[in-house]
Amino acid sequence: MMTENILEVTDLQVFYPVSRKTPFEKKKSIQVLKDVSFAMKRGEVLGLVGESGSGKTTLARSILQMIPYEGTIIRNTEQPQMVFQDPYGSLNPSKRIAWILEEPLRLKGGLSKEERVLKVKTMLERVGLEEKILEHYPRELSGGQRQRIAIAAALMLEPELLIADEPVSALDVTIQAQILALLKEIQKEMNLSILFISHDLRVVYEMCDHVLIMQQGQIRESGDVEEVYFHHKDPYTGRLLKAAGILV
Ligand SMILES: Nc1ncnc2c1ncn2[C@@H]1O[C@H](COP(=O)(O)OP(=O)(O)OP(=O)(O)O)[C@@H](O)[C@H]1O
């Protein structure tokens, strides 16, 4: 069943509680995601675009079952893995890279030390890093190297679905291009599905097959990247494309 959907989201609603000013006030909540529905095919790179606060990270958290929601999320896969904007937050600062990359395998169990080390070395090569980096701590690496390690760590358990939340936003433009090229290469090699979250429409154009345009918790427009970028139907999409300098 290689063409089945890896992810199906139907009528997703997410509410966050609003803190009360006094304990006597009625409990309130704000709706952060509203009627969100979409499907993602196996091996697809799906862009999720929207301005700050539009609900992109909230959607990722719902897919990972980290927050309560209403509606249906069907994941036809094991637990997806995440890559974040700032790998500083996700890489344990007190551990060497060797330990960090081995950890998911150790937690899962079933492999000998030698097998784990071999897998770590193979993955390191795949993300374009040399073995000597294994002895270093995250703070000793450059931003680009750290993001390569974060990608390697996310891929150690060979997930089928990766959620990348602004994975290149903190990097210089040249390093951005390198990391995007790496992600694309690995995506093809592993037939990985990637939910690629970004506020940068140019980066999404580079990376994605399909795109969801989100505004204030709702999907305004979705479809093939070429179609949405050059034949958009929603005026909001047009405004975003103009702001990004893609449309004049
Ligand atoms: N834990 C929370 N409690 C209450 N409100 C929250 C919480 N987390 C996020 N929000 C609010 O929900 C809305 C959507 O936030 P979210 O982080 O999903 O947006 P985003 O599109 O990922 O933004 P950014 O690009 O800035 O990360 C925002 O208005 C935010 O202030």
From TrEMBL:
Keywords: ATP-binding, Nucleotide-binding, Transport. Coiled coil: none annotated. The keyword ATP-binding applies. InterPro entries: AAA+_ATPase, ABC_transp_ATP-bind, ABC_transporter-like_ATP-bd, ABC_transporter-like_CS, P-loop_NTPase. Residues 7-241 form the ABC transporter domain. Transmembrane segments: none annotated. GO terms for molecular function: ATP binding. PANTHER family: ABC TRANSPORTER, ATP-BINDING PROTEIN (PTHR43776:SF8), TRANSPORT ATP-BINDING PROTEIN (PTHR43776). This is Dipeptide/oligopeptide/nickel ABC transporter ATP-binding protein. It comes from Suilimivivens aceti.
